[in-house]
Amino acid sequence: MTEPAVPAAPPASAMPAAPATPADSAAEELAAARAAHTLPQQLEALLIVADEPLSAVALATATDHPVREVRAALTALAAAYDGDDAATARGFELREVGGGYRFYVRESLDPIVADFVHQQTPAKLSQAALETLAVIAYRQPIARGAIASIRAVNVDSVVRTLLARGLITEVGHDPETTATLYGTSEALLGYLGIGDISELPPIAPLLDDPLEGFTHESQ
Asked: What domain range is 52 assigned to?
């Protein structure tokens, strides 16, 4: 008995192509961007937009390069920014702090930046800035995420404003998360007319819940 013929499968070229998904398009754009730019260019782009120091591992993941290549590229970038002498050094530098890398204004240029900020920034602080400054003053050292948790709002721009005004400063990094920790500056103490944060007035009597967010005050 002759078995019925099985229809031949159409050639692959005749099969309709599956529609591209947004994920496919994003992956293609990412691959094209990585191919079109050098590793140093990619690292610079990531470091410019970073709010916190980025580890070599995080940068390696973002650029799809081995960690050793990323570390070598970071070292080369830092040397290039430093130049051969003061005349060829860039106005910023690449530092490794708290297990991560971040751009900073070159320390020798701090007076120029401070003068510019003083001229461009109005003296009066917003209510949001005052509230954030109070949280930092009474909870320091404190990370930006903890400040946002207490205030229940995003505080990135406010923290940048306070840093630019010289009212707060970076005082270290959390040993577990490497997040930057902030505290009040000597300039703020001068504005307040006190010599140490221990001289700040008690805040608990001013709160609806004296313990909320300030449990350490009595310690």
From this structure: 36-107
What residues contact 114, with CB distance under 8 A and at least 6 apart? Answer: 166
Taken in order 115, 121, 126, 132, the sign of the CA dihedral is: negative
User: Which run of H or of E encompasses 143?
Assistant: strand 142-143
As given in the structure block, the two tokens for residue 8 are 């031949």
Instruction: Share the mean pLDDT of the chain.
Output: 85
CA distances from 100 to 51, 53, 57, 142 (A): 11, 5, 9, 18
Stretch among 89-98, 165-174, 202-211 having the lowest mean pLDDT: 202-211
Please answer whether residues 173 and 95 qualify as being in contact, where contact means their C-beta atoms are separated by less than 8 angstroms.
no
- Enclosing H/E stretch for 23: helix 22-36
Q: Does 152 fall in a domain?
A: yes
Pair (127, 95) in one structural domain: no
80: domain CATH number is 1.10.10.10
pTM above 0.85, yes or no: no
What would the pLDDT profile of 176-185 be if each residue is shown by its tens digit? 888 999 999 9
What pLDDT is recorded for position 216? 44
129 and 178 share one domain? yes
In a domain, 172, yes or no: yes
> Are 138 and 166 contained in the same domain?
yes
